[in-house]
Design a protein that fits this description.
The structure is a homodimer. The first copy, chain A, is an alpha/beta fold. Chain A is built from 12 helices and 12 strands. The longest helix of chain A has 16 residues. Chains A and B meet through helix 4, helix 5, strand 2, helix 6 and helix 11 of A and helix 4, helix 5, strand 2, helix 6 and helix 11 of B. The first copy, chain A, binds a DNA duplex through helix 2 and helix 4.
DNA sequence: CTGAAAGCGCTAACAG
DNA sequence: CTGTTAGCGCTTTCAG
């Protein structure tokens, strides 16, 4: 059995309170006893039981994170950022997959509650009224990651999706493209769907460029077939010269489709993605994309949650982190 | 504050033991009280505190998983498999990144110990004597995932790496290739390095094919630059007709390098990878590869760990799961 | 400075 | 069937 504080006390011939003290307030113990205790701890390789401690302190130094699907490469760096920040701040991460499913989400929130996590990192999905209600009820600190809520006062960390999409389209327009297509997420997705679509529309309007519904193809973010989307878009708008996709994964799927159909990128069609996942650096051709600072988003989110947990003042409720355009080889200039 | 069992007891006008009973042995409580308690629980939205329970049961229903680097796409499906199995069996997963660093690993093992996880999933890295010693000392159930140990009696789940590599080379040979190169992990990596290299050697020998040291380029798995590796191999062995890489990520990096240097795949050079990560389905060209059942490995590992935790008989200590070759577009037949 | 005792939230005998 | 009591491992008054 694992040694407990009792075993240490017995071995060091002191009371358990003294053992507790050398761990929590070493200065209040006389040196002679302190060394005896320290030796006993060393000999038994004693480590305090975090459950017992958590019961008293009401802190578990554990954070719960919900993610739609960890297989999506987008989350790899976010989690890495969270992990590094957590290690630094002394937290462990319980990671859960929701598949964007309400029941799974609620089930995990319940687990978090029972396990007394100190806070929750909620990723990507929108916050619906009943989600908010549940979160309120649980009464645990939350920060939204790569998503946010305008209706509710919930802290969040994300980029400016509308502006980012606008910048992508503006880049294409500045490169001489006029007939631009987009593979977008469903507009029902208020975070990655609607906003990026709006950025597209704003840029097109601003430059007085016409576009029809056929220029855009909508798909479900968490249940999509990039190939099918690419095919659909091409049937509807075969003469676009550039396509903006709402994610790099879509862009890579699109390029794969184009390659199969002997359409060259960027000679025949320029492609610009969104996210800048690792893969976009080794795709063929290398992908031009809107880069999100995924690692920083994850890192910052944990810091922000930590601040909330510690009751520190949290200056900005809805944090916007900068995006940037990374120009690689999948887009080209069109000289009229 | 969160409601406790006391609050429920008070509201239902029974003792806390009765409340405890309706949760753990409902049949031993008379209906009238039971409904009163259930109503109180419902009204207060009471959920038992897992810390308190864990303290008594000495079970936390939490598993610790260590992974070299979660950004590596290889782990995405493994974790997904673990996640699904965990949900099914009632576990939560604490996921940690070690960067294959001893100190980080030991630090996390320590956290696992303090947090009283029920078991540990140890991924990919070899088990060194001091790791084993530490694992022994902690005295927690462990299962090795995509790695194993011949020296120690540790349960594991993985494919037969040597045979898998052999199959890859055999496939190339059967396709008419004679001058075959390999980008391998360092031989100091006894799991993914040495074994796959040995599979390569065995196949070449078996078919009486000559190969020199120049046909192989070794790199560090967790700190590599696929480009540099590709370049190095090409300088040393420019006339290979096919290359086997120890991972899909290496293969994709290699194809990117080849594309930049106007070497066509598979027309000029065939490429076969290892793993079958998602990306290999959308690479250009689509990658021929040795498929590991990552999801199953993760899933099975959790089941196996659960069996150990529950003290069930665990038939096979070192489980080997089947691999298969997935032929796509990055390899071609050579007709002499 | 230090030990005894109470208590964190819950379960498990043990009487009744 | 059910309430009382004694812990699980640890921290924290409270005397001394």
């Amino acid at each position: 059995m694992k040694p407990t504080i009792k075993d240490v006390a017995k071995l060091a011939n002191v009371s358990i309170s003294t053992v507790s003290r050398v761990m929590n307030a070493p200065d209040t113990v006389v040196k002679s006893k302190k060394t005896r205790v320290l030796d006993a701890i060393e000999e038994l390789k004693y480590k305090p039981n975090a459950l017992a401690r958590g019961l008293i302190y009401k802190k578990t130094h554990t954070l719960g994170v919900v993610i739609p699907d960890i297989r999506n490469a987008y989350y790899a760096d976010i989690i890495r950022g969270m992990e590094d920040a957590s290690k630094k701040l002394g937290y462990s991460l319980i990671i859960c997959n929701t598949d964007s499913d309400r029941n799974r989400l609620f089930s995990y929130l319940n687990t978090f509650y029972e396990k007394q996590v100190d806070g929750i990192l909620y990723t990507s999905n929108p916050i619906y009224p009943d989600y908010y209600k549940e979160l309120q009820r649980l009464n645990m600190p939350v920060v939204l990651v790569s998503t946010h809520s305008m209706e509710y006062e919930l802290p969040s960390v994300k980029i400016d999706d509308e502006q980012a999409a606008y910048d992508a389209i503006k880049f294409l327009i500045d490169s001489g493209h006029r007939n631009i297509g987009m593979i977008s997420f469903d507009l029902s997705d208020s975070i990655a769907g609607m906003t990026r679509y709006q950025g597209f529309v704003r840029a097109m309007r601003e430059y007085n460029l016409e576009f029809s519904k056929d220029n855009i193809c909508f798909i479900n973010e968490f249940d999509h077939d990039p190939y099918a989307a690419a095919e659909e878009l091409f049937k509807k708008a075969p003469d676009v010269t550039a396509i903006f996709t709402a994610s790099d994964i879509l862009a890579i799927g699109l390029m794969s489709y184009l390659h199969e159909n002997k359409i060259r990128v960027p000679e025949d069609i320029s492609v610009i993605g969104f996210d800048n996942i690792r893969m976009s650096r080794t795709s063929i051709p290398k992908l031009t994309t809107i880069a999100q600072p995924m690692y920083d988003i994850g890192h910052r989110a944990v810091e922000k949650l930590h601040a909330r947990i510690s009751g520190e003042e949290d200056d900005i409720l809805r944090e916007i982190v900068p995006h940037e355009i990374v120009v690689r080889a999948s887009t080209r200039l069109i000289v009229p």
